[in-house]
């Protein structure tokens, strides 16, 4: 018992000694930090007192701080303005997927020279097809719809010539991008295409991106035809519960930019569901055109067009370039009938492993018989 009590007493003494050592160490650290803080604030106090008592030093300090702040702010703003200017000149908005406008100075000249070189190398000794001046030879439409499109392209061209405000358009049904592109080409306008499905993921940046597109459109010297495919993706009715805040903001930004008639751009909307568009959108539309599914005559013309372009065109194989030419694939058309019987029409049989033409044929109605082997 005496030995156990001695051990307990020894442990208490050891614990008290360790506590006193720890307290002294902490007190020493505190005194050291307090001394450092006092010294630091003493130097700061001495410097401020010397600065406030000396007028010249005060003026130099205030002037230097002001110059530093002005330099940082000016550098940031100049860099922002310079980058915006370079982006407006060289870049195109991220929402634009396809455009005929030059992306950088001189690119249009290079593109024209390249096209002339390719045309001279691939179409040497051949005559251009009749009707190439129309610009609609590659677009197959019903005759009445084609006349309306040609009239609309002519009217747009005259509007540009007389510097009158352009008319906005709405294509609905299964609309085609080719028609908008050909209208722009016939009218002498630049062409750009964006998709409504790219707008919603932008979130809070969508308003800035919409304004960037219309500011960029003013750079075109010819005027710009802006084609918005799947317009119902962000131009739907604002009363809908499924419309997000970003879509509402994009719609309001677009309505603000097209509120007045413009002499710089033509807006063309395309949708399969025109009834879903907001009423404010339809109020700003001047021309509404329906594109129905192609009939039997139009399908035959489409088949002949692609058949002549991709299968029978001898110059199609040399379009890869002046130095890199692909060997043409030998295709032997055996029969192509243009007769239109009531129940059945034999189209063609080609000796080719391609199944592309078969898919084109199978997309037609049940009266079409085809064979590819």
What does this structure look like?
With 373 residues, this protein is an alpha/beta fold. It is built from ten helices and eight strands. The strands form two sheets. The protein has a six-stranded mixed β-sheet with strand order 1-3-4-5-2-6, covered by helices on one side. The chain has a two-stranded parallel ribbon with strand order 7-8. Helix 1 packs across helix 2 (55-90) and helix 4 packs across helix 5 (177-187). The radius of gyration is 37 Å and the shape is elongated.
Q: What portion of the residues fall into strands of 2 or more residues? A: 5-15%
Low-confidence stretches: 121-134, 320-324, 340-358, 364-373
Class computed from helices, strands and strand pairing: alpha/beta
Order of helices and strands: HHEHHEHEHEHEHEHEHE
Morphology = elongated
What's the total helix number?
10
- Average pLDDT, rounded to a whole number, is 76
Protein name: AAA+ ATPase domain-containing protein
Keywords: ATP-binding, Nucleotide-binding
InterPro entries: AAA+_ATPase, ATAD3_N, ATPase_AAA_core, P-loop_NTPase
GO molecular function: ATP binding; ATP hydrolysis activity; zinc ion binding
């Amino acid at each position: 018992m005496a030995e156990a009590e001695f051990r307990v007493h020894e442990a208490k003494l050891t614990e008290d000694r360790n506590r006193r050592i720890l307290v002294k160490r902490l007190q020493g650290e505190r005194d050291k930090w307090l001394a450092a803080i006092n010294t630091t604030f003493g130097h700061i106090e001495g410097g401020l007192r010397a600065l406030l008592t000396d007028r010249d030093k005060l003026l130099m300090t205030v002037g230097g701080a002001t110059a530093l702040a002005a330099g940082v702010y000016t550098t940031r703003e100049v860099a922002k303005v310079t980058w915006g200017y370079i982006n407006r000149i060289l870049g195109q908005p991220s929402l634009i997927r396809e455009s005929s406008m030059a992306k950088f100075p001189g690119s249009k000249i290079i593109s024209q020279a390249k096209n002339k070189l390719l045309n001279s190398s691939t179409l040497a000794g051949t005559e251009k097809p009749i009707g190439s001046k129309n610009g609609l030879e590659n677009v197959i439409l019903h005759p009445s719809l084609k006349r309306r499109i040609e009239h609309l392209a002519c009217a747009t061209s005259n509007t540009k010539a007389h510097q009158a405000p352009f008319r906005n358009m709405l294509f609905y049904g299964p609309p085609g991008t080719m028609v908008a592109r050909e209208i722009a080409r016939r009218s002498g306008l630049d062409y750009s295409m964006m998709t409504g499905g790219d707008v919603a993921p932008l979130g809070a940046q969508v308003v800035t991106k919409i304004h960037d597109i219309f500011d960029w459109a003013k750079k075109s010297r010819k005027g710009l035809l802006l084609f918005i495919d799947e317009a119902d993706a962000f131009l739907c009715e604002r009363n809908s519960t499924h419309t997000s805040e970003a879509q509402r903001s994009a719609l309001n930004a677009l309505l603000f930019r097209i509120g007045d008639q413009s002499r710089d751009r033509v807006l063309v909307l395309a949708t399969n569901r025109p009834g879903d568009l907001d009423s404010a959108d339809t109020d700003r539309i001047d021309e509404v055109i329906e594109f129905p599914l192609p009939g039997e005559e139009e399908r035959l013309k489409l088949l002949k067009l692609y058949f002549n372009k991709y299968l029978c065109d001898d110059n199609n194989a040399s379009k890869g370039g002046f130095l890199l030419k692909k060997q043409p694939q030998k295709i032997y058309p055996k029969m192509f009938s243009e007769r239109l019987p009531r129940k059945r029409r034999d189209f063609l049989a080609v000796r080719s492993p391609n199944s592309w033409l078969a898919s084109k044929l199978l997309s037609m109605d049940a009266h079409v018989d085809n064979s590819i082997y």
